# Entry
Amino acid sequence: MTDFEDNDIVCRHMQLTKADIVKVIRDKQLKTFEQVQDETDAATICGSCAADVEAILEDELKKREERG
Ligand code: FES
# Structure
């Protein structure tokens, strides 16, 4: 679980909020961190947000699995 609210900026270099990242993960059914980077450019500048982006992805994958 992450502590981010939907409107919190997760990647300040790309100005991406949690909601922005979640939307791309859901819309494109992304599975890997690399795919999230390719689609959003998150964590491609300084990388300090990488762990947070990964945590958001993991939450989404878990939710996807639970939904079946
Ligand atoms: S904060 Fe995400 S690349 Fe710098």
Summary: Residues 9 and 16 are 6 Å apart (CA to CA). The helical segments are 18-27, 33-40, 50-67.
